[in-house]
Amino acid sequence: MTRNKLALSLAGLLLAPIAGTAFAQSAPAQDQSQPTASQSNPQQLQTITVTGSALPRVDTETPSPVTVLTAQQIARSGYTTISDVVRSISADNSGSIPNAFTAGFAAGASGVALRGLTVNSTVVLIDGHRAASYPVSDDGERSFVDLNTIPISAVERIEVLKDGASSLYGADAIAGVVNIILKPGYQGVEGTADIGNSQHGGGFTKKATFLAGFGDLNKDRYNVYFSAQYEMDNPIYNRERDYPYNSKDLTALGGPNGNFGNPATFNGSTVGATAPATLGVGANPLTGATQVKNSLYSPLGSCTNGTVLTSTAGVGSYCAENQVAQYGEIQPQTEQGGLYARGTFKINDTTKAYLSVSYMESKLWAQLTPQQIQTSTPNNTNNIALPPVLTTGPNAGKLNPNDPYAAAGEYALLNYQFGDIPQNNTYDNHNARVVADVSGIAGEWNYDAAVVLNHDWLNTTQTGFINYPALVNAITSGSYNFINPSANSAAELAQLSPNLSKQSTSDLDSLDLNASRSLFDLPGGSAGLAVGSQFRYEAQNDPALNPDDLFQSLGIAQTKGHRNVSGAYAELDLPLLESLEVDASGRYDHYSDVGNNFSPKIGFKWKPLDWVAIRGTYSKGFRAPSFAENGSSSSEGFVTLNPAQYTNFVNAHNGNAYSTVPYSLAEYTVANPNIRPEKASNFTFGVVLQPTSWLNASVDYYDIKKSNVITGPNFGQAISNYFATGATGVPGVTVIPDIADPTAPNAQARPAEFIGQYINANSLKTDGVDIDLQGHWDFGNGIHYVSELSGTEVFNWRMVLPDGTVESFAGTQGPYNLSSGAGTPRLKGSWSNTVQYGPATVTATIYYTGGYSEIAEDVGVGPDSCLSFNAAGTQFLPSNCRISSFTDVDLTGSYAINSHISVTASIMNAMDRKAPFDPANYAAVNYNPTYSYAGVVGRFYNLGVKVKF
Predict the structure, then answer these.
(1) CB atoms < 10 A from the CB of 304, how many?
(2) Tens digits of per-residue pLDDT, 128-180?
(3) Does the domain at residues 20-238+332-367+426-464+499-633+673-712+758-948 carry the CATH identifier 3.40.50.620?
(4) What residues contact 274, with CB distance under 8 A and at least 6 apart?
(5) How far is CA 871 from each of CA 253, 255, 497, 603, 925, rounded to the nearest angstrom?
């Protein structure tokens, strides 16, 4: 018998790859937070409520696919944050937000994006209730719940509904729902303490949790528990990792040299370089200087601070600097912690209530490269020059000591970086949440009423940005010493770069009411009815850090809005036969700012055999515009644009000066008060198999169509049109031209900024399949084996533009202009294997992400549309224009010394696999942090102890 079981298990595991992906457990869910009829009558089977249904049920396999991650599974994964746990789900795809993306709008936060529909199409619930969004929107547009604000130490399980659910949960539940369910009660005391470190240096972590509770709900009529957690992660610097993660000089791989210091690319080093320049009649010395013909650049001083003297033909000499190694961080320093307390009280045999209070804080410190003196926005300083004679300040009329050519009466064209002004960003997010809930039985009805008060406030501090008026004064008065920066006073640096700070807030207050009951008997059992309503208030206030555009290279993003939302829903479950169940639900919502919406859903589950179930759903959903999209809001982002791609423009400028050098182009998008909600239709169809008590599997196909997709203006088309004709050619989009190229003053100016409103313009379609498998076997001699596999394959992910153009992203690095530009791999999955033998438990988990083409059709199409090229622009980089797949193996284990003490250990990325080379990803240096972050961290060791009484 043992041999037969082993043979069957091996056969199942060997057949899994043939299906094209991996699997994960779809386990029964249980919600003990509300009493049901079964709890008052012990003769009945216990009923539970599963995410995606408002009805308590005995059979937890609903028409919709739901994946459950228990606290035990979370512990076996080795992950210690909700963010890591949720984002490891195979259905999490393009558009999710990694913690490592510190240059993004929503830096310091982490969000989940099921089905690749971005973070604003997945609803995150805590105990079935909505949570306040992060105070800053992703890309200045998309609202989402920060996973870092959820206490993992109190988590009972996580339920992931991979289906549309607007019929019960309202707006935004298009891609699915992630419901984090906290412990309903706890008795005893337990604590954990862990430390960890990377084999390759950096990233030392320490963490601790504490959980204590007392009171028996049935005997004492109350239970109170308290949990606390803390985690501190040290930074990992790029210089602590091997090439190519520690440099932008890709010449060894056939790519360009992206190191700083070359004046031809306007990326200066901390030493700086100058060349003699002249000024045309009436020209502005800050913008209109022209390098003296045949002159060469030379350093302002000796090449120190890790710079290397370099000479380039036709440019001159300068101090080149590998600033990735000098300043770059793979992992910023983070600190997270929080408290959660819950008291549950049994008022009588049919009624109970609970009150929970939580406070979570998450801090992130990010170090960035210092600011350049040459920037393109909001003021173009690419041709900035030091005057030979000072014109302002106490030394006006004297020769400029910073200008090496002052005695000859020549200006000094300046290429420089402010190495004495460090650029650091600090994000300190606080989340306070109070939930009061009462539930019970009144006659034939089970009821639940809850009040949620949730406030989130984020303190942002940024240093190192250069104030433009102060820069002008420093240039004309000579108050800043470019030759010897160490001589600059603290007062001068503070005037040139004062600290910037703001507090952003978001609020969600809600009243949730629901009730359910049995109606009448049908051949398959009792029909069930659930009804509910919700009233909530939502608000967001994110002020701008740079409201007057005074600071160079800093965009403007501000969001402000509030609204009232009311909704009512109903669900009817009809067990028409013992083998056939039909479930129908619908919800009507009223938004004070965008009007009304009705979302219906119907599903079925048919069991032709006891061990086979066929299920399917069809639903309509919607996404309400965020405050960034329809409030008093605007956002300015930057994209890197290479004018050399546009032949006519290059010819007009003869390839000279700054006009044909890659630069940051500003895209300014403002809210549209007339924007309409996005609409969606969802279809799922699947099969659930349980041929034996020790094996269950499911295969589910999904199909999602979105219309009225809210998007920014078609800046890509506007850019192409402008370079070709000098006009945007896109309705509603205007352009602000840059200043003229001093070497070609009569030629067309390159664009400095494009401006437009959000619009309902696009539609999209995505479909794919989820496959889940869970098996468990007892082999005798105390050996228990559990195998859990989970995987998703994306068949299609297509965006349709207003003109009918179809952009296909499945298996590519598109959509590129989205969040962190992570792309849409077709395959993503995990396979976990656990062996328990007496007091020892060992788990090995394999995570796999498929490779993808290094193309993105929202950036360009055609045979030359690869996102990265060599320095000459003649060959793809990599040569096959493809990013490799990534496989990561994690090992975790625990050993119970006795009933009170156990030790834990893990080796994350045990095979020390390296992250695939991805030179096009702009969220990190030469790798993709969304899918292969573990590969750049490398092998990581953890050791911990758990004490329980």
Answers:
(1) 10
(2) 999 999 999 888 888 999 998 898 989 999 999 999 999 999 999 999 999 99
(3) no
(4) 297, 298, 300, 386, 403, 404, 405, 412, 413, 414, 415
(5) 11, 5, 34, 55, 17
